[in-house]
Amino acid sequence: MTRAQLAGVILGLSLVAALTIVRASDPQPLRLAREATFDQYQRLAPRSFEAMPVRVVDIDEASLQQFGQWPWPRHRMAALVEKLTELGAAAIAFDILFAEPDRLSPRNVVRDVPGIDPALLDRLPDNDEIFARSIAGKPVVLGYGISNEGNYRPRMKAGIAFTGESPVDAPPHIRAATPLRPQLEANAAGIGHISLNPGRSTAVVRTAPLFLTDGEQLYPDLALEAMRVAQGASTYLIAGVPDRQGIMSSVKIGDFVIPVTSAGELWLYVSPDRAERYVSAKDVLAPGGVSPETRAAIEGSIVFVGTSAAGLQDIRVTALGENVPGVSLHAQMVEQVLSGHYLSRPDWANGLEIALIAMLGSLLVILTIFVSPAIALACGLAITGMALVASWLAFSLAGLLFDPFAPIVMGSITHFATTSFRFLVTDRERRAIRRAFGQYLSPSLLYRIEHTRNALRLGGDDRELTMMFVDVRNFTEISERLPPTAVVRFLNTLLDALSRHVTANEGTLDKFIGDSIMAFWNAPVDVTDHPAKAVRAALAMRETIARLNESDAFGFGAGQTVRIGIGIHTGVACVGNMGAESRFNYSAVGDVVNVAARIETACKTVNFDILASDDTVRSLAGWALLDAGSLELKGKSARTRINAVVGDESVASSPDFAELRLLHGKLVEALHSRSPGSRKIIAAAKAKAAGLPAGLQDFYGRISRRADDFLAKRAGAAAEANAGYAEQQFGSGS
Q1: For the chain, N or C: smaller number of CB within 10 Å?
Q2: Residue 282 CB: number of other CB atoms within 10 A?
Q3: How many C-beta atoms surround the C-beta of residue 35 within 10 A?
């Protein structure tokens, strides 16, 4: 074992130990990620909706519209109890608070009227008394909420027994509860809390506490009490843990045993919200009698009374991501118990996940340092796949919740860290090459040097290249009025911004020549569609120089703009390492280089910023191109036809460019025939060009002095490309 390997093992195992400790502490981000994973499992395989004797009598929008705004007078709640009892409800549980006197009670309304005889008050009906009489002797369960004020505790209607040590400290603690009206509390068959996720910061309801505690007494929730009353049971039997206080394992109520978390919570295994679960309150209270469907839905069912009306703000989010009325979750808890479909997270799940992190991390450290990062990655991916499959099978087959997220993420962190260490410590030769050449060569060229034997030797190959030259207009004038340091800052800002588009479009930066950029495409590695990528880089440069001018990035002040010219040509060149054995440069030589440089110079003559040769634009069918004529380039015996690059395919498909292209074709014909009508066409073209993104007005302002450049009879590649594109889009015509 080398010293570097020993250091890698020590650092890697130290990281594994730190990550194991982090998982053991279970910070909130890990908990949230774990819960989100379990949510996703439920979304992939939710509990199927089954016809159960559980219903929600919904005080919905239609009920409010028929019977008036909420809260309803309690004599109407009494009528609802009477009707549900008549229909044969096994239990009636109200997910509604009855903490204050009914303000709509006639006695309370008249009490505040001046001059009323007190004796009259006693003869007026009291809605709370009416409601209390209606629930007496009936299977009615009332709900209460958690309060931070007062010291009220609800009256227990059932006994609680437990096996093992006392679980009193297991559930969430409460300071006080919202008080029930005394006569309602006395007459109710059951009383349960309606809090679904007390003390939790998340809006998603994933677990629900079946009990609350004040440290001395346990208080059941609404769903439990509804099940107890429906079965006629009188006692809860809670299973604790031998020799350990403050832990629950299950709750038995009547014929049902419910597995719970150590804190007495039920993992909710929800089904999608279904209309079959609900019965509208207006259908129960229908003056003409209930329908057979409503009677069948209520008879023998545990009924929860609550509201889905949006204005009453009792909307919760389930693990399926649905917004549902809170009362429906109480109903789903009972459905879940009746169906026997439970979710559970074993007490030993945390220990297993922590052990997996330690073992997986240690294995990845050993494999990465001593074998290969690739093999370590393959083993990590295989273990990751097995962990995901095992976690999913445990959920789908047994309802067990195991977290694959933490072991996978922490194993990935370990692999990344140890691979990075090996790269930093052992791959020194490759890093030395990058340090030596990284500031001068493009990433693709660096890759070629790193992976090609004898790449750093003299020689070259003939390849088809697309060459680009970029030059700053009036640079001499700019440099004369600036101090040398300001000139350097200007060039650095400009060249850095422009050169990024070369590498971003898979090009190779050859060199910076003062205020110019020389770049090429299709070497040292093959680049598909390299003419188009070179032109896209040029268009991106046009946008960048406009943005820099607009933001005054050069600090020249308002109205002082910088302009560039770009020449592009495609052809065969010799590309490779040029120079001496002791010092050389990867570059390209040949006629294609000279032509591209001359085309860039011609931007001044044509008065346009991006020019490309016919050889380049033959690959650009459907682009926004205009024939710029045939120019005499220095060193060339024949004229070279060039094209103005206006924009890409999106510009070409615009109506403005389509009209301009037709005008331009007429103008070329007029210039060729020296027609006196060319001036009118030029004026029309300039007007149409005003709505396009390129500086075409200057182009047309100069074109009348360049009539000789359009005397060549053959059509240019831009015209051929545009014609082909038009035929493809619109047909050949007749």
Answers
A1: C
A2: 18
A3: 18
Residue 601: give its domain's CATH number.
Answer: 3.30.70.1230
Among 33, 31, 43, 35, CA closest to 270: 43
> In this predicted model, which residue has the larger pLDDT, 611 or 124?
611
Identify whether the C-beta of residue 92 lies closer than 8 Å to the C-beta of residue 219.
Answer: no
Check residue 254 and give left, alpha or beta (phi > 0: left; psi -120 to 50: alpha).
left
Say how far residue 319 (Cα) sits from the centre of its chain: 18
Same domain, 116 and 213: yes
- Which parts of 498-563 are beta strand (E)? 508-513, 516-521
Measured at the alpha carbon of residue 726, what is the angle toward residues 720 and 731, in degrees to the nearest 5?
Answer: 120
What are 409's two structure tokens?
């993420």
Q: Is position 714 within any domain?
A: no
Distance separating alpha carbons of residues 140 and 180, to the nearest angstrom: 14
Q: Are residues 292 and 419 in the same domain?
A: no
Neighbours of 452 (CB within 10 A): 11
- pLDDT tens digits, 257-303: 999 988 889 999 999 998 899 999 999 998 888 899 999 999 999 99
Residue 334 has pLDDT above 90, yes or no: yes
Query: What's the rounded Cα separation, in Å, for the pair 501 and 520?
Result: 12
Task: Tokens for 56, please give them.
Answer: 């929600």
Strand ranges (E), 402-513? 459-472, 508-513
On whether both 275 and 358 belong to a single domain, the answer is: no
Last residue of a domain, one of 372, 405, 436: 436
CA nearest neighbour of 373 among 7, 19, 8: 8
Which of 600, 620, 640 lies at the terminal end of a domain, its last residue?
620
- Kindly state whether residues 382 and 460 are assigned to the same domain: no
Distance CA 699, CA 646 (A): 11
Is 247 within 8 Å of 295 (Cβ atoms)?
A: no
- Give the per-residue pLDDT at 673: 84
Bridge-based pairing state of the strands 91-97 and 140-144: parallel
Structural domain includes residue 675: no
* Residue at 321 is within a domain: yes
Q: What's at 154, amino acid-wise? A: P
- Give the chain's domain count: 3
Q: What is the pLDDT of residue 715?
A: 44
CA dihedral 535, 540, 544, 547 (to 10 degrees): 120
Q: Smallest Cα–Cα separation from 704: which of 732, 685, 719?
A: 685
Contact 63, 283 (CB under 8 A): no
Q: How far apart are the first and last CA of the chain?
A: 81
Label residues 478-511 b or e (16+ Cβ within 10 Å = b).
bbeebeeeebeebbeebbeebbebbeebbbbbbe
**Phi first, then psi: what are they for 97, rounded to 5°?**
-90, 135
Q: Are residues 116 and 198 in the same domain?
A: yes
* 429: three-class secondary structure by DSSP: helix
Q: Which residues contact 75 (CB under 8 A, 6 or more apart)?
A: 125, 127, 130, 131
- Please check the confidence at residue 106 and state whether its pLDDT lies above 60: yes
- What are the tokens at 304? 């929860």
Neighbouring CB atoms inside 10 A of 574's CB total 18
Domain that holds residue 18: 3-30+350-436
Q: What is the pTM assigned to this prediction?
A: 0.57
Report if residue 586 sits inside a domain: yes
Domain shared by 117 and 176, yes or no = yes
The token pair at 223 is 């769903």
**Res. 726 pLDDT band, cuts 50 70 90:** very low
